[in-house]
Amino acid sequence: MAGGIREQHGDELSENHEINVTPFIDVMLVLLIIFMVAAPLATVDINVDLPASTARPAERPDEPLYLTVKEDLSLNIGNDAVQREQFAATLDRVTEGKKDTRVFLRADKAVDYGQFMEVMNLLRDSGYLKIALVGLETLPAPAVPAPAGNAPAVAPTVPATGGNP
After folding, report:
1. Nearest CA to 58 among 145, 142, 130?
2. 2, 4, 28, 128: which is deepest, by most CB within 10 A?
3. Distance (Å, rounded) from C-alpha 119 to C-alpha 55?
4. Are 92 and 128 a contacting pair, CB within 8 Å?
5. How far apart are CA 102 and CA 62, in angstroms?
6. Three-state secondary-structure class, residue 88
């Protein structure tokens, strides 16, 4: 306990060797609340059904810039929706005018190839030529030797090892 009852009456006080942990607990509770509030803000909330790829993934920068083409053909830079008319100005504002910034382009599987190419042309017309395509990482299925007899060979399914970056 932090306090005690003084049993001696006199001018001399005895030393209290107990540690007061109340301020420490208060600080820890404040830090816990801060982390609980900040943790959901650090995630990307856009759901995109990405196609799979077996290519070896490239190194990612510290703060990648994602351009997302959703199924309804709307565009998002990071987590912010962008109109096509304001696309170049918004991209310049986000990259601070650095045209050599690598843009990670990801699109839903349902997006038509022609629409996807239009978005790539928007990037090129805006001056951004470093474009990286994003997909799900999958492992190639290993070759299974044919079993003896008339049973058909069945290759095991391999789950995807990656997710939305």
Report:
1. 130
2. 128
3. 23
4. no
5. 12
6. helix
Q: Which residues of the chain have pLDDT under 50?
A: 1, 151-165
Rounded CA separation 108/122 (Å): 18
Which amino acid does the sequence have at 6? R
Confirm if 119 and 105 have CB atoms less than 8 A apart: yes
Q: Is 67:75 a contact under the CB 8 Å cutoff?
A: yes
Both structure tokens of 43: 């995630």
**Cut 0.90: pTM above it:** no
Query: In this structure, are residues 60 and 162 in contact, taking their beta carbons and an 8 Å threshold?
Result: no
Tell me the C-alpha distance between 37 and 45, whole Å.
Answer: 16
**3 state DSSP class of 112:** coil
CA angle in degrees (0–180, nearest 5) for 103-86-51: 40
Q: What are phi and psi of 120, to 5 degrees?
A: -65, -35
Beta bridge partners, 133, equal: 105
CA 123 – CA 32 distance, rounded (Å): 42
Reported as a single tens digit per residue, the pLDDT across 86-128 is 888 998 898 888 888 889 898 888 888 888 899 999 999 989 8
**Residue 36 is encoded by which pair of tokens?**
């609980």
